[in-house]
């Protein structure tokens, strides 16, 4: 009897197991060179299936040495063209041709290959890999009840994160480091377990990296050259909670069930965001809502009634398109990080699907600010109307997000009324932030006084002061000092030589600035400043030089590291090329001084129309040969 196996059945080890069962005892096993070539290519690329297949060939060689089978290698290795068309079935066709020429039984575990071979008239035997109950993995033995994650690496002592939510400690859990052979054994056990058990699957398989979901564990395996050694990181949830266990539980329940909403669950890593998201998913699923998830990797712990989806053909956009056909009431989007994630989240929300996104943020307002520049400002409350901030496993803050047409806090002129996003504390019902466009940029203004003390500027004051300073500095050449006298009045002190330039002919220039900002401005010389030359004045000078984007922290400070760029001046624009941060919001600085905030285009540039105040200031900085830098905001 002559048997020709294809690549699939060699990889899954069913050739030797079939021989062990006595079915092909004494047969001639003819292994095509095309099979060997495929396995070799996969092994060279670090793909586990290649190594599995080579191990099976060694098993066959051992059976041949024992006289249980005859073994031969037949045919020719595929050429470069045939290898390049492997996905189109070229190599499969070569293997079938060998089976046909030898009039052999064609052995495969690939159902498509089996059906094609039957259609060609071959004697086909299709065997399917047998799923078996996999016992406890060695990696699982490193966990106890308080272990959230285990971290293993070649030549390093095993470590783990253990403790209660918000009180995790990264600690050693063994006395001796693990050698490469042991790590390789652990890694292969994890991958084999995922393949053989119905309780596991391989989420991601790339050269040098595999991500496995096995029972409650998400296990990432890195290998050289992607990693500098074999590394295994296993993570599992350590708590499963109900929504009733959180503060404001009843109010949150009522809010979620009232209608489909857009919710961002935010917090620092390890704060308990996913645990809360799981509780929300189970709650709304139990109250007549169809719930799905979008995850990469899929590691939320939810019931079987909630289907967990990952990337479709490598793109979450395609997953979203499929879900819109399924029409869930709510979708849990785990790990909303990149611009593309926010765009998918927004598209689904605007299509009427309730969306709950999990976002990394170190402050409650930061989650909402990550939408700025990614979603049109006026659409943000339609995309996200609720922000839940989790800290140490508890609900720390809940924000209600809505739009009002009003004069922004800190401004007084009625003609300055505009759409304002008001962020209100859900528990106290007090507004805490306003987000709106101010002098051609989006600003996030804290409405409460700074915690530094009663004498410090409020968030609104800082915004106003920075904008006045920026406007005057675009006109004046010398030092500028701004003093706010009230919410609608300021005094600006400039060098005596700059007085005429700042005021302009007939007061026209300063009037234009007042109209733009909605603030009355009194222009004086530094000699009239009672603080000039004092430490208070020097502090103002320092803050003036380092003032930055008014995004929430609102103050000046140390200049952030950024990339130095060379702007290109055309007849109509100043074009700033940016290597990274495409689609992101950034600050543009000149000589360390803040100029403006902008969003980098997908083509990797920022365009500023010439003739604007920002462009004039930028051109002056270029003329002075000041370094222009782009800093992520």
UniProtKB/TrEMBL annotation:
Residues 259-384 form the AAA+ ATPase domain. Residues 1-115 form the PIN domain. Pfam families: PIN, T2SSE. Residues 521-566 are annotated as: Disordered. The keyword Phosphoprotein does not apply. Residues 548-559 have a biased composition (Gly residues). The keyword RNA-binding applies. InterPro entries: AAA+_ATPase, KH_sf_prok-type, Nucleic_acid_metab_PIN/TRAM, P-loop_NTPase, PIN-like_dom_sf, PIN_dom, T2SS/T4SS_dom. One of its GO terms (molecular function) is RNA binding. Keywords: RNA-binding. Residues 521-530 have a biased composition (Basic and acidic residues). In the N-terminal section; belongs to the PINc/VapC protein family. This is ATPase. It comes from Natrarchaeobius halalkaliphilus.
């Amino acid at each position: 009897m002559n048997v020709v196996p294809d690549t699939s059945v060699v990889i899954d080890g069913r050739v030797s197991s079939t021989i062990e069962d006595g079915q092909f005892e004494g047969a001639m096993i003819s292994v095509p060179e095309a099979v060997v070539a495929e396995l070799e290519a996969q092994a060279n690329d670090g793909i586990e299936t290649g190594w599995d297949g080579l191990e099976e060939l060694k098993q066959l060689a051992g059976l041949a040495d024992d006289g249980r089978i005859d073994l031969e290698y037949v045919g020719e290795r595929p050429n470069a063209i045939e290898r390049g068309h492997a996905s189109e079935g070229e190599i499969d066709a070569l293997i079938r041709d060998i089976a046909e020429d030898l009039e052999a039984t064609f052995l495969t575990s690939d159902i498509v290959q089996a059906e094609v071979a039957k259609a060609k008239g071959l004697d086909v035997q299709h065997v399917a890999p047998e799923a078996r109950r996999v016992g406890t993995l060695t990696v699982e033995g490193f966990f106890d009840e308080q272990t959230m994650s285990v971290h293993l690496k070649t030549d390093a002592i095993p470590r783990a994160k253990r403790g209660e939510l918000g009180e995790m400690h990264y600690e050693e859990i063994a006395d001796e480091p693990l050698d490469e052979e042991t790590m390789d054994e652990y890694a292969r056990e994890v991958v084999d377990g995922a393949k053989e058990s119905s309780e596991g699957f391989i989420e991601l398989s790339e050269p040098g990296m595999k991500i496995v979901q096995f029972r409650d564990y998400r296990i990432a395996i890195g290998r050289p050259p992607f990693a500098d050694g074999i590394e295994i990181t296993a993570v599992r949830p350590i708590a499963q909670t109900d929504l009733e266990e959180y503060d404001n539980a009843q109010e949150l329940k009522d809010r979620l069930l009232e209608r489909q909403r857009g919710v961002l669950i935010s917090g620092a890593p390890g704060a308990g965001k996913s645990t809360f998201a799981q509780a929300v998913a189970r709650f709304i699923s139990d109250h007549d809502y169809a719930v799905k998830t979008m995850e990469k990797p899929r590691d939320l712990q939810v019931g079987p009634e909630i289907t967990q989806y990952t990337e479709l053909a490598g793109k979450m956009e395609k997953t979203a398109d499929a879900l819109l056909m399924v029409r869930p009431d709510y979708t849990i989007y785990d790990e909303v990080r990149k611009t593309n994630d926010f765009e998918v989240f927004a598209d689904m929300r605007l299509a009427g699907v309730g969306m709950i996104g999990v976002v990394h943020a170190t402050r409650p307002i930061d989650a909402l600010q990550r939408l700025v520049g990614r979603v049109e400002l006026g659409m943000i409350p339609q995309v996200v109307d609720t922000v839940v901030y989790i800290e140490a496993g508890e609900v720390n803050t809940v924000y209600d997000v809505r739009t009002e047409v009003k004069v922004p806090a800190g401004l007084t002129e009625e003609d300055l009324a505009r759409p304002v996003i008001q962020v209100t504390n859900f528990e106290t019902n007090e507004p805490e932030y306003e987000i709106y466009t101010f002098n051609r940029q989006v600003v996030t203004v804290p409405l409460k006084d700074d915690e530094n003390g009663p004498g410090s500027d409020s968030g609104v004051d800082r915004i106003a002061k920075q904008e006045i300073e920026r406007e005057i500095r675009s006109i004046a050449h010398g030092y500028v000092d701004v003093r706010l006298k009230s919410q609608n009045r300021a005094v600006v002190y400039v060098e005596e030589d700059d007085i005429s330039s700042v005021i302009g002919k007939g007061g026209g220039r300063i009037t234009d600035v007042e109209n733009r900002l909605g603030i009355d401005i009194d222009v004086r010389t530094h000699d009239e400043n009672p603080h000039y030359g004092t430490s208070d004045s020097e502090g103002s000078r320092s803050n003036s030089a380092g003032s930055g984007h008014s995004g929430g922290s609102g103050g000046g400070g140390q200049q952030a590291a950024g990339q130095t760029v060379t702007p290109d001046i055309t007849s109509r624009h100043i074009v700033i090329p940016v290597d990274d941060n495409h689609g992101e919001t950034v600050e543009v600085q000149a000589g360390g001084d803040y100029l403006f905030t902008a969003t980098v285009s997908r083509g990797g540039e920022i365009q500023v129309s010439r003739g604007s105040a920002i462009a004039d200031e930028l051109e002056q900085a270029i003329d002075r040969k000041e370094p222009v830098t782009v800093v992520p905001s």
